[in-house]
Structure formats: C-alpha cells, structure tokens
Amino acid sequence: MTDKATLTIGSEEYELDVFTGSENETCVDIQKLRAQSGIITMDQGFGNTGSCFSSITYVDGAKGILRYRGYPIEELAEKATFVETAYLILYGELPTEKQLLSFRQQIAEHAPIHTNLEHHFSGFPKSSPPMAILSAMLNLVSCFHPEVLDVHSEGPEFDRTAALLLSKVRTISAFSYRMAAGKPFNHPNPNLTYCGNFLHMMFSEPYQEYAASPVIERALKLFLVLHADHEQNCSTSTVRVVGSSRANLFSSVAAGVCALWGPLHGGANAAVIRMLSDIKTSGKSINFYLDKAKEKNSDYKLMGFGHRVYKNFDPRSIILKKRVYEVLDELKKDDPLLEIAIELEEKTLKDDYFKERNLYPNVDFYSGILLRAIGIPLDMYTVMFAIGRMPGWISNWRELLEHNQRISRPRQIYTGKNERKFVPLDER
Ligand code: CMC
Description:
- By secondary structure, the protein is mainly α.
- Helix content is 52%, strand content 7%.
- The strands form two sheets. A three-stranded antiparallel sheet has the order 1-2-3.
- It starts with a strand and ends in a 26-residue tail after the last helix.
- The site of carboxymethyl coenzyme *A (CMC) has 20 residues, from helix 17.
C-alpha cells in the first residue's frame, strides 16, 4: 500500500486505500465504500475495474506489452513449446528438464478418454457447433473422474487434474471434428508432441497416418503459445466468476468455453475469415466495408480490430502477421485473404475513425489465416483458441482459490417500477 485517496461526495469525505502492483499500476480500493457510505461504483463492462490481484500475466495496453510470469511474449513465441508455456503459466517458473519430462508424461497419460465418454459423441447431431460439444464434454469429464471435483486439491492431485484437463481438451476437440466429419476417431499417440498428437488425432486416416511437417507443427505451437493467457479477459473472468462460487475446475472452464464462443471474444477469429471471404466474393471495395463499420447506428464491426486493453498494436498480432508470411512461404502456399487483410489493415491505419479510437488489429486478425495454412477447418478456430487458453483458465481458477477470493457478486442500480399493488387477473 503506498497512499490513500479521498473521495468527496456532497459534504462527506471517504478515505480509500490505494494499492500499487509490481509494474506500478495503481488502484483505489472501493471494497468498503458501500459499507461506509451506502454508495456503489458503476462500471458497465468492467472497463475500469480491477477484479483481482494476479501474478500470472501482465499486459500494458498503451505500450503493447504482454508477459507471462514476467517473460515477454516475443521470447516465449520464439523459444518455448506450448507445454513449457503451460507449465510456466501454471507454476510460475519455466520447468527444468526433469519437471518438463514429468509434465509431458502426465499429459500423455491422460490423453485417451473413457470409452463411455467417447460414446457421448454419437449423441450429437453432426452439425453441432464444436464449441457446444467442447463445453458439454468438459463438464462431462468430471463425471468420469469424480476425484477432480475436489476444489481444494493440492500438490500432486492438482498437478494431475491440470495435466488431465490440458490433455483431454485436445482429445475432445479433435474428436468433435472427427465426429462432425463422419470419420473414425484417431486415438492419441503418446510418442508425439502436444501439437503433433493433436494434428494426428485430427487428420490421420485409417489408410494414411498424418505426418505433420515441422513448419505446421511450429505454426500450431506458436498459435497456442500466443493464446495461453491474457489476464482478465471475458472468458477468464467467467472462469473466475464461476470458480468463485467454489464450482469445480471443469465446470468453471466449461463456462469459460461458452464465454469465449462469442464473436466479440474468441469467436472473432472465425468471424475475421468470414468477413475477409465476404469482401473477396462480394465484389465491393474495402472502403465499402470501412464505411459500414464507421456508420454511427450500425452494429457492423471490422472483426479482428479493436481491443479493450490494447490502445496500440496487439503484440500477438505483430508476431502472427510475420509468421503467416513465413509459414505460407515455407509451405509454398498463397492465401488471397492475406492480401485483403493487409489492404484492410493499411486502410484502417490511415483512417481517422480508426486512428481516433485507437483501433488496431488484434490477435484474431491474422490468427485465422495461420489456422487456414495449417489446414484447420473454420468452425474449429475458436476451439483452437480454447485449447490455447486452457493454461490461463486453470491458473486463474487456482489463483482465485489460493487467494480465497470472495464470491463474485456485483451490485446494480435498479431503474424499474417503484412498489405497486398486485392487480387481479380480471382487472388487467
Ligand atoms: N470496428 C468498428 N468500430 C469499432 C470496432 C471495430 N472492430 N471496435 C470498436 N469500435 C468503435 C466502437 O463502436 C466505439 O465507437 P464510438 O466511440 O463511436 O462509440 C469505439 O470504437 C470504442 O470501442 P468500444 O466498443 O468501447 O470497445 P470495447 O472495449 O467495448 O470493445 C471489442 C472491444 C474487442 C469487443 C471491440 O473492439 C470489437 O467488437 N472488436 C471486433 C471483435 C473482435 O475483433 N474481437 C476480438 C477481441 S481480441 C481477442 C479476444 O478477446 O478474443
């Protein structure tokens, strides 16, 4: 605690605590304000509300900085595997060789899913949205592993649960794709890497084992590392809100999947590709879409632009843009949507509307083009985001319990009718 703040309302003054984080971000603690004054604060969409103290991820939206546990995203993207990154996010330090080996073994061990759980896939219509399947199946996992319902598990039990979840989310996701495609499931192969195993479960065929090229495996690894955590975004906050009632980890992350699904959050990665395809096939100019997004009363937005926290470039989009070129080059592929994306970005950077509002490409703008290059089907894009975000969700859920955080329960200002008498049916 560094200071005190004074709030004056009418003739009353209230002294409030001020806290400063390790990167000097400052907050005024209003937790006791209501008890002292009967007054609440209003912040719809929580744009200026700190909901927790956290030591997992640091974002500086003005400078375009993102760090997991102090490590810059640029370095992790280049040097760390997804499993190493997940370990770092979960446990606060990069793993030693021995720790990494053991973590990998646990993930490999938990990759298969119970045959009865596997049977549940046949109950879904083929057209089911993969995010609906993922959320439902993550909840179902706990029915097959009742031990994970213990919210106070510590040490080796927690380690096991975390590895189990990181592993099952990958198998369930791949199986949901196979089910929708009417193809047999490919069981996990413990000898493959995290990414290689996912690609095998997605794309191996009975007549041909999928052999992932190192380019594709690296691209997928990069995608997952970049999505591994992003402090108190909508889905992570959802995981924390659900977890704050002491709901188990599986139901909390299943709720996180639902929050991620929306097009303003993780659903944006697929929405970007739909938007770019639409621009390509419509025959209309990019300016037409820019004007549409700028219209005062339209709810049309340029997908993949804007961010609650970044008021500068999203560092993840810079890394992705560079990598998209390299991957397409390495794979000797072209993507006409990339040209449209580049033109769209260039135009927005010169446009007053976007400049005044600090709207830059976010992580979802180029990630879809990377996923297209890897060969991931469009309706799986947000599922890919969910696989990547799992370490962040697990870690935030755990931190919430470690801090013994109070149940999330915001207040409201009531704007409805005042008290009135009940009107009997025959008088209405
Ligand atoms: N296109 C056109 N106008 C926009 C856009 C956009 N993509 N984003 C924001 N604006 C406008 C917005 O209408 C508002 O204008 P005005 O001041 O005239 O009312 C102004 O910019 C400020 O925006 P905001 O609505 O206050 O921003 P927010 O922090 O509430 O919302 C956002 C952030 C990401 C939901 C929003 O920018 C958006 O909808 N972007 C498109 C969807 C998207 O790409 N989502 C992915 C987010 S990043 C990764 C993730 O979280 O999954």
